[in-house]
Each structure stands twice: as C-alpha cells, then as structure tokens.
Amino acid sequence: MQNIVSTIFNRFSSKSLPLVLLTFLLTNVSAAQDLQIERKVDNLLSSMTLKEKIGQMTQFGGINKKYEEMIKLGEVGSFLGVKGAEKINELQRLAVEKSRLGIPLIFGNDVIHGYHTTFPIPLGAAASWNPELVQLAAKIAAGEAALEGTKWTFAPMVDIARDPRWGRIAEGAGEDPYLGSVMAEAEVMGFQGNNLNNDLSIAACAKHFAAYGAAEAGRDYNTVDISERTLREVYLPPFKAAVDAGVSTLMSAFNSLNGIPASANYHILTQILRKEWGFTGFVVSDANSIGELINHGIAKDEKEAALKALTAGVDMDMGGDAFTGNVYSPNLASLVKEGKISEKLIDQSVRRILRIKFRLGLFDHPYTDTLYIKNHIPDQKLRDSAALRLAEESIVMLKNDNNLLPLRKDLTSVAVIGPLADDKYDPLGPWNCSPIPKRVTTVLDGIKNKLSPTTKIKFIKGCDIESNNKRQLDNAIRIAGQSDIVILVVGEAANMSGEAASRTNLDLPGVQEELVEKVAKVGKPTIVLLMNGRPLTIDWIAKHIPSVLECWFLGDQSGNAIANVLFGDYNPSGRLPVTFPRSVGQIPIYYDHLNTGKPFEENNKFTSKYLDSPVTPLYPFGFGLSYTTFKYENLKVEKNKIKIGGSTDVSINVTNTGKISGSEVVQLYLRDLVASVSMPVKELKGFQKIYLNPGETKTLKFIITPKMLELYDVNMKKTIEPGKCEVMIGGSSVDLLSNYFEIIK
Ligand code: NOJ
Predict the structure, then answer these.
(1) Phi/psi of residue 740, each to 5°?
(2) pLDDT digits (tens, 9 = 90+) for 251-288
(3) Would the CB of 154 count as within 6 Å of ligand 1?
(4) How confident is the model at residue 65 (pLDDT cuts 50, 70, 90)?
(5) Which residue ranges make up each domain of the chain?
(6) CATH node for 630-744
(7) Is it true that domain 392-586 has CATH number 3.40.120.10?
(8) Tens digit of pLDDT for each residue in 17-31?
(9) Which listed residue (110, 176, 286, 556) is catalytic?
(10) DSSP per position, 145-164
C-alpha cells in the first residue's frame, strides 16, 4: 500500500491533487470473506425452487408495472437501465421484503466514463497513460452511481481495437494489449475498490468477451475470424488483467469468434475463463445475444439458444424485456425437465450470481444509503478537479510548428470557429451515463475565461458537424481575416462513435474539411482542435496546419482542460493509445506488427508497402508532443545474459532539455529477435509517466521480468525461449534508444 501511496504522490507532485482525493482512492481495505460467502450460497441454493433459480439468471431492461409481480415471485434477478435511488430502493423492497427468499436484485447500468460527472471517453483517458488517475475517475463514477442505486457497471470495455472504422474503439484503451491491460486493471480497481462490500463500490464487468474489437471491416457486430495465437496474444490479455484484478463479471460478446458465437463459445467462456484463469464471478450475455444465436445460425429456436449459451458458460441473460428477447426465463425449466440440461448446471450459474450479490453486501444492506454515500464521496469541486486533471492529461499535442502554442493571454483578437466550439453535448462523448450538459465548459467558454477583457473574441460555427450546408463558410473566412489567431474546433458528433457507429470514411464529416482548408488559407496562425471518438484521417491538416491538438471527447471539463493547454497552464502530456492512419486504405495499422519476410525498404519495390501511400502511419502509437523537450541517454542493461526465469534491471537517463516543466511518458518496448515463432517488431512492456523540471535529469529503472519474456511457442505453450532480445526505451513507439540482452538456458 505504501508503494501505491508514494507512486500517486510522486505522480501528482507537480500539481498535487488534494490529499482527500488520494485518500478516497485508497480506502476500502478489508479481507475477503469468501468461505463464509460460499456457505451462505449453499444454504440459499438448497432452499430455492427451479423457478427462483432461473429468476436469478434473468435480467430485464427498463421498468414495467408487470415486473413488480415477477419480482415478488422471485422471477427476476437483475435490472438494466433503471436509475435513481428511490426507484431502485422501491423495487429492491419488493425483492427483499415481499419475495419468498428475499434475495436482493442487482441493478446494472452503463457507467462507462462517469455517472453525472463526465470524464473523458476511455480512448481519451488511455491517452493520459496515467492509470492512477483513471482508477480515481472510475472510483468517483462508482460512488456517484452507487448514490443513485446502481451497484453494477457494464464497464470497463477492454476490447483491443485496431480498426478505427469500428465506432466502439472510443470505449476502450486502444490498440495495445499491455496498455489495455493496465487500464483494465485500473478501472476494475476503481469501480470495485479494495472491497466490494462497501456502499461506494460497484461491481465491474469486463466486456465484450471476446475479440469483439476484431470485427471484420470495422463493421459493428460483424464476424471475427482470428487465430488462437492472435486471440491469446492480442485480445485476451486485458480480460486476463481484469480477472486478475478481481473483476466480478464479464459480458459475452455479440460477435462470432472463429465460427462460434461468443455467447455460445465454450472454449472462451469455460475452458479459458473458468478452467485456465479460475474466474469465480458470473458472465452476463450482451443484450439479446443469446436470442441472436438463431440469427448466427447455430440455434433453431430460443430454446436451443438458451441450451447452447448455458452449456457454454453464460450465467445471466441480458434480455430485452420480460416478454420479448429474454430467452432463459421461458426455456430453462423445460430444458431441465426434458433432461437436456442438469439442474446442477443451473445451480452453478446461480451460485456465481449469488456469490457476487453476497460479495457486494447486497444481502446485508440491499438499500442505497444515500446519507452514508454523500458523507463519504468527495464533494463536487474535488470530483471536478479530478475530471479536469484527467481531461488535461488526455489531450495529445500532434503538431506545434514554431511553438505557435502556448498562446499569450493578452492577444488582441481571436477567431473561434467550428461546429464543436460552443457545443455542450458532443464533448460528453458516446456512452455518457447521466450527464448534466449545462455543467460542460465549451472550448469557447474556456478560451473566454483565459483571455484578457480587452481581447476581441469572435465566434462562428462555420458549418454543422454533418450537414452539407455551406452558408456560413464565407463569414467564417471573413472573421478569420479579422483576427490575429484562429482556433478551429472540428470533429465528429458524439453519436458517430460508440455502438452501431462504424464508418467507412474517417475524414472530418460534412463540410468541415472545406471549412478548415478555406479558413487556413486566410493565412492567420491557425490551431486545429479535434474532437472525435476514433483516429481520423487528417492528412491535409497534418500537412498544412501548424498546431493540432487531439482532444477526443473530454467530458464536463472539456473547455477548461483545452484552454489550460492552449494558454500554457497545463503542458500537454498525452500520448496516442492508437495509431493514426494516413488513409482508410492503411487499416488495420498498428505498431506491434510482425516483420514479414520482406520488411519495408524505401528503394526496394519488392518489400511490404503501397504504391500510392507511405507505409508509415500519420501519427504513431505512443506519440505526443510537449511544450518542452526530453532527451534520452545511457540505456543500460544490468545483465546482458539472463537465465530463463531470471530478470534484469534496465535504466535510462531522461532529461528535460527545454525551458519549462513537463511530464514525459517513458515507454519500454521489447523484441525477441529469434524465436520459434515470428514475434512483433516491438511490444510495449512497461511505461512510467514522470515529471521533470527544466534541466532536471531522472534515472529511471525498469525490471525486465520473466512474464515480459513469455511467448506462445509453435504448440501454443506459454514459454520463455533462449536467444537475443532487444530492449528499446523512448518517448514514442518510433523514437527509441536500444540495447540488447540474451536469454540463456
Ligand atoms: C449493448 C452493448 O453492446 C453493451 O456494451 C452494453 O453494456 C449493453 N448493450 C447494455 O446497455
């Protein structure tokens, strides 16, 4: 614990978060009472009827008067989409006081990046490379959710995504299994605290199991066909990290995986999750994904779908409502009676569900204790300060020619142009939960708050996000011409990413590209601020605009955070968690690819490349600029030979060579140079975010552990092989110093 405290203190020492927030992050320590819980589950199970058991495995969406009777009869175990302590306590009372056994309900919602206080979308938060801050955001979200009765969140989404056409890339931590695992762990720890049995903790749900992010052509819900190797090396690690962090639940995905729909996939749901990883929580299906087994063509009717999902390992059916879409409740009893499934199988699922309800303390305190939670959650000002800090750290500076940024606060005139500049809704991003739009500071607000009263600020939308209406373009050009500095705020609408929001074209939508190009041609120093839920293809902007900030959707504090960066009150420290392609034609593009037999060479036609585009990305993974500069020197490997199972220290000196303080994300990559299988050209294995004053040097130490050296051999056995390895450390995936060591027998 001391270590975590000091890491957090060090991390924030530059601009400390208040002590009370740090203490809040670290509370809730208590010993697990697993054995006692198992006994209680045994007792309860032995007195349940089959109908009551199936009730526990049933979740309904929304509320309906008719559900009240069903709750009293023990025919429902969970609700999705019900919000508010009063309503939830009322339904809970029916379950606890009016049903035969008094088993509490569990209420789940999509608390993805905040409940009321809205934080950056997960892809943006991952750009902070600051897991402690991500953990704090999840913990605040959990507290606010719990205050309104929600004890279960369908988060984190830990799907690795390498195709930005897929809109759900916004909901996860990007392309990398290691960064994804670190963020998965942070979110689980934030939502669940150290003890689930606390009024401020909520159960987390790692989703969508598995490989949903590998949807063919980036089209949502589409087929996934990947090798077992890719599944295990790329898509499973964040799920494993979530399980190791004690995640309570997993959600089975919509997609089919190598021919078998995830919600009927024994291999992942039982073989890997339960038998290999020892997961003891429960699996909920994604909404209606059991019924959809019929569309997938592996079940002739809902009954067969229920049979397949349960035998594969799905414990709870997230259905539509009680009357349509729900597949377990109308079918499981007859399947048992017909001998197609044993009651033991039902018991196994019910046990897992009850276990989590006990761990959450729902039997002892089923009702939301609003007074207790209000007294223990940090006040709104503190929650806002955490949201501001995460928003600042999520911003990635992609370009800053001639140090155009930061801007002076006494500018004579500024033009703020763009459809997202004064927008309070879209910065909340996709999958916001219960946001309060009026609390959002827009970019225009943020800029106004910074500038001196004498500065003339002119604002015009210029165009809509999506329409083809060009009526305001000329006015935008005129206003740009009248100003000393032009700030363009462009991007996507919030609903263009998230679920069912795939795109084939990743350019700025509508006529925004034309707006940017025409305004830029006026010739004033121009800054582009991008808001989007995915990498966009911004080749023209990258070539012609001197300063570009990637701002994702930053939530409530959007305008404040962006203005802090624009005017130098925060030195940008975000780094890309995902590669930005030059064009859609390069997709999928990611940094940890294999070398191929003909790796790219500039002057050799017969190497892996394109005729019509560079092979490199527009902006690589791990990239991001700062208002200062960092120099890397002296990459030392302590032992240049290590025995299988051994480890070595490596160290590097990092110096702030600029004139102002700033944070750097020091990234460590490894490459296994000769193995029994082809290994990626580099793989992120560690990072440290550090703060350096001007002229300051820090020597950073990393430990290369056996776990970092593991690979799946030709027989898919996890192993460490002897041979030479390259270690690379630097400030992005393409800007690295390297050294070598050898693994010996
Ligand atoms: C469907 C989505 O795929 C999933 O992520 C979400 O948690 C559920 N709906 C519930 O809203």
Answers:
(1) -135, 155
(2) 999 999 999 999 999 999 999 999 999 999 999 999 99
(3) yes
(4) confident
(5) 392-586, 630-744
(6) 2.60.40.10
(7) no
(8) 677 776 676 554 444
(9) 286
(10) HHHTT--EE---B------T
